[in-house]
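Issue 218. Parser rejects a valid record. Input:
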Amino acid sequence: MAGTVEAADLKGGRLRVAILADMTNFDPQQFSTVNFPLIKNLYDSLVEYAPDGKVVPSLASAWKIAPDNKSVTLTLRKDVKFHGGTPFNAQAVAATLKKAADPQKGKNVYATMSFIKDWNVVDDSTITLNFTGPAPERQITDLLQFLCVIDPAGIDTVETKPAGTGAYMLGERVVGQRIRLVANPNYWREKEPIANEVIFTIFSEDAAATAALESGATDIIYGGTSRSAVRLKDSGYQVIQGPGPLVQVFRINSTRGPFRNEKFRQAFNYLMDRKGILKVGYAGLGEVVALPWAPASPAFDAAYNEKYAFNIDKGKELLAASGLSPADMSNWKLLVNGSDESTVAISQVVQGSLGKAGVKIELDLQQGAEFIDALLKGRFDAVFGAVGNVQKFPTRVATNSIYRTSNNPILGTPHPHPEYVAAIERVNTTFGPGADVKGAYDNLNRVLVETAFAIPTNSYDVGLIVAAKNVGGFTLDIDNLFVARTVGFKP
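Output the parser choked on:
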């Protein structure tokens, strides 16, 4: 059981969870933070990671990487059924891979499929994935962990109707209000799930969710703010921080306006008051970063934090070197998620810092679905948005829209920064005895700050869990997704 942090004789019942935003859809390949409460409850991955990064079996009971690293053969569990009653098998894995490999249907998983050439179904419980060339072991297991298997019969309707093997099934959804999950009576993990029912109630404000927890109307807040978590911890509530933080990134549409100018973009490496952003937006919970890696990533390099520390004067030098006029430099808007208090606060910090450098901008506040649509389709000049998978194999960063190397919804095709695409490919192909792995990481880091189409500011805890004292059995997911199957009530 990967990541279970508490072994106790827990009781079942109705688990009440407060969340701060409604989900996008039921497709597990739509890896948006608003879907994090549901993905690992409705679906299972082929493998999982323990909090320490060790790979553990899930739907795949075993896997064998070929000696030349050009393929992996999976042995699948034989005792699993989808919620609809059909058996889980290699054909279902193949159907899920086909969806993931489609640039339109694969969504956030599509980029991770870039090294997959094809696959062969050997029999009902065996499938081989073939690669375009030798692949690092961690790149292979990252894909297997990222891939939640979907019932082939439900692939075409998965956005509106879940089709997984998970510990819970959909009981009810009232858009904008609540989502009710009921225990899967045929779940394959023994003695799980513990809770008979999980009810996610959607609160429009963090303060309302906090009040519900303090009054006993809810048992858990998932995905609340760092500031509230700090206050509630001081009041005696449990605060659970997982191993999978996000990195907040100032995303730049380098195909628009002044951002076409490389020197102008590079100036933003110095114009981010990262310490101020971390304090104002996240109550200091997290780390300042100038690269898109959590500190646990093998590509993390703390030296960049000092080299690109907040420095208005250095930023001004690059602004001057851009040759742009003050009017040109200010001819853009910063898109802001008006529904998120932290994002509004950090955007105001940046607006103030830029003003000191002579760049006067407006904040374009948009709400809910309107903001998400603009974010995912690249209809912005610049915007703050979190990126995930930053604690795993470095090229997993390319699963995030702004960092995609192909079919990038913001920067387009072909990618306007081919040196970045080449740097990602170098990391993917540098492994084995005698390989200059560090050199590949160093090259990628250099390219990231020079191309400057995305400026990281800090890591922070997505999926913070704040819980009442009588709740236990939390499983720490490597991506900080909420896992309800092991959670129950203390005697």
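Fixed in the parser; the record now loads. The two ends are 21 Å apart (CA to CA).
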